[in-house]
Design a protein that fits this description.
By secondary structure, this protein is mainly alpha-helical. Helices cover 50% and strands 7% of the residues. A two-stranded antiparallel sheet has the order 1-2. Helix 2 packs across helix 3.
Length: 86
């Protein structure tokens, strides 16, 4: 896990479902930077979510839901569950 409080690093995350976040963002006409500003996170955090490097934390998923006008359950389905360390 990283020190950033807005996302968690996820190993083995596939990038294909994550592109749904990019598609939703682009439908709103937003850049990564503009979405980051709306959510109060960094642009690299948005990049990490879209590229599959990380997944947003629960509180940020709720903000994404409100910003993108998409049910939070649908947004959660774009991101696989985080693997627990053994």
């Amino acid at each position: 896990m990283t020190g950033n409080r807005h996302y968690a690093i996820v190993r083995g995350m596939e990038t294909k479902p994550i592109s749904k976040l990019r598609e939703a963002r682009e439908r709103r006409g937003w850049t990564q930077a503009s979405l980051a500003q709306v959510l109060g996170v960094s642009r690299p955090a948005v990049y990490a979510w879209e590229s599959g490097i990380a997944r947003p934390r629960g509180s940020v998923m709720r903000l994404l839901s409100m910003a993108l006008v998409i049910p939070v359950e649908e947004i959660q389905s774009w991101f696989p569950k985080q693997e627990k360390a053994a």
